[in-house]
Amino acid sequence: MRALVVEDDPGIAGGLSDSLRRAGYAVDVCATLDQAWGALVVEPFDVMLLDLGLPDGDGLDLLARVRRNASRAGALPRNDMPVLIMTARDGVSDRIGGLDSGADDYIVKPFDPNELLARLRAMLRRAGGRSSPVIQHGDLVIDPAAHTVERAGESVVLGAKEFALLLALFQAMPQVLSKSRLESALYGFGESLESNAIEVHVHHLRRKLGESLIKTVRGVGYFIPRESVAATAPAARGPSL
């Protein structure tokens, strides 16, 4: 999952980015509305964390611009992208105004990073049409909060990028995600990326979770079909990356 943090306080932005990266997110930070819009129109973000008091205006203006956008999937940014407002404005009217302007959730500074992460998980569950905090697919059980994966009751250890890739595919299931879309979901602007990184991660996931789970559409990308047989026994699991 790729998160855009729109926050002009370097201390808050840095601490929040560290928490998100530890939780498996790819993170990009923008300090102004102009920078944030520029990022949104060139990259597909899964979620935006939005401060309101920014140097070049009010974050609600950016939120309104996103929600007015006509596209849900083609041109960017998506107008259905989950947005969490994080601000010092703690009045009831402020919270009502933020939510009625199109925010999916609203948290008041200062906040506990663990609460923010829990709110993000809940937002992404709703965006993916899920109510359960865990993802179950055949004999595969994924817990996004605990960052654990079980296959037929046995724990499977995944590397951070492997886990993020698996979540991205399940979030989109059964939609096919291109290699470039998966790269965008897993890597921020400043992160180094090998040309075959996605292929390597997919190879390891298949080795650990079974060849039948992730399908390839040659020349297009990867997907998890709803009817995939998740119970096929995997080969040796091996260590995580």
TrEMBL record:
Which residues carry the post-translational modification 4-aspartylphosphate, per the record?
A: 51
| Protein name stated in the entry | DNA-binding response regulator
Location in the cell: Cytoplasm
The protein's matches in SUPFAM superfamilies, at most eight in alphabetical order, are given as:
CheY-like
Q: Which PANTHER family does this entry report, sorted A to Z? A: REGULATOR OF RPOS, TRANSCRIPTIONAL REGULATORY PROTEIN QSEB
Q: Name one GO cellular component term.
A: cytosol
Task: Give the record's keywords alphabetically.
Answer: Cytoplasm, DNA-binding, Phosphoprotein, Transcription, Transcription regulation, Two-component regulatory system
Which species is the source of this protein?
Hydrogenophaga crassostreae
Q: Write down the DNA-binding region ranges.
A: 132-226
- Gene Ontology BP term (one): regulation of DNA-templated transcription
Residues of the Response regulatory domain = 2-124
Q: Which residues form the OmpR/PhoB-type domain?
A: 132-226
Against InterPro entries, the record matches this protein to:
CheY-like_superfamily, OmpR/PhoB-type_DNA-bd, Sig_transdc_resp-reg_receiver, WalR-like, WH-like_DNA-bd_sf
Broad class of where this protein is predominantly found: cytoplasm
**GO MF assignments:** phosphorelay response regulator activity; transcription cis-regulatory region binding
